[in-house]
Design a protein that fits this description.
The chain is 39% helix and 21% strand. The protein is an alpha/beta fold and 228 residues long. The chain has two domains: 116 residues, 3-Layer(aba) Sandwich (Rossmann fold), CATH 3.40.50; 97 residues, Winged helix-like DNA-binding domain superfamily/Winged helix DNA-binding domain (Arc Repressor Mutant, subunit A, Orthogonal Bundle). It has a five-stranded parallel beta sheet, sandwiched between helices. Helix 2 runs parallel beside helix 3, helix 3 packs parallel to helix 4 and helix 6 crosses helix 8. The chain is elongated, with a radius of gyration of 20 Å. It binds calcium ion. The site of calcium ion has 5 residues, from loops.
Amino acid sequence: MRVLVIEDEHKIAQFIKTGLEIESWAVDLAFDGEAGLDLATTEKYDVLVIDLMLPKLSGIEIIHILRDKEHIHTPILILTAKGATGDKVECLNAGADDYLVKPFVFAELVARIRALSRRPLTQTEGVLQQSNLIVDTIRHEVSRNKKKITLSKREYSLLEFLLKHKGKVKSKDEIIQNVWSYEDDVLPNTVEVYINYLREKIDKPFPKSKSIIQTIRGFGYKVDNNEK
Ligand code: CA
């Protein structure tokens, strides 16, 4: 198991590293937000432990970038100072999986990291397919009938979300919560607008193929489950 700890207080960082190495885990340290983000996006980890107050990039900024821009779903445990309730909620909303308030008991840190590492990952790797549409979730490449399709990041996220939940109707609210970030301005027709953008790119140019996204009037949208 490999853990990245992003913590600017060297003493605490070293203390965590030493403790986790006793558990036979490989531990990388980063002492500021930028260095941490760099490692988190280039290396593979089982769990990320991120302190909230960091120089260069804050913990919350790192979470937003990892989840929204990089589509990295590695479990994240946040370390927060005592009493910073607002921060905690904000982090969980942004996509953190758990938090621990400093000072903490070491055994609890170990237990929480272990629990997070066992959590099945949302399918983030490999290939999502719907008839002749293929989404490579590692390279973020989309193609249909072997023709490459260029999507914006938001269009891509929306398509990935619907494909991952094949056969299930997803309401606009659910889509917003999963595809848009906490701070984005979302208007009532935003989802419709993006569904239309997507259809222009993935359905319109392929009139002989079945359309990928179904509208379920009054409920939301879905991708059918009856195909591979
Ligand atoms: Ca700090």
